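call fold(seq) -> C-alpha cells
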Amino acid sequence: MAKQEVVEPTKEIPLTARGAATRDRIVHAAADLMYVKGVHATTLDDVRAATGTSKSQLYRHFPGKDTLVHAVIALRGQQVIERETQRLGRSSSFSGLVRWRNAIIQANVLQNGAYGCALGSVANELSD
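ret:
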C-alpha cells in the first residue's frame, strides 16, 4: 500500500479590523470582476488595480488565485442564500413561489440576460 501524505491544516493569522476590511475589499472586487469578465479572464493584477492593493497585501490574504476564487465562491453563495432565503421567507403559497420565480426572471430581463446568476456563472465556468 502507498503511504498517504498527511497535510497539516494551515493556521489562519487573526486579522486586524483594517486587515479584514482589506480582505473584504479584495474579495468583493474580485467577485465583481469575475462576474463581468469571467474567472479565467480576471487576473490578480486586475484585482490589485481595482482595489489599490499591493502585491504583498494581496498575497498576504490570498497566496494564489485559487484561494481567491474559493473566497469569491463562498461570498457569492452566502449572498445568494441570504437573498433567496429572505425572498422565500415572504412566500407562504404557490402564488408566492410564482412571484419569486417571476422576480428572478425579471431581474435577468433587466440585465438583458447579461452575466446570468452570479454563483451559477462561476460554477459553470469552473465546471471543466
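Residues 93 and 119 are 27 Å apart (CA to CA).
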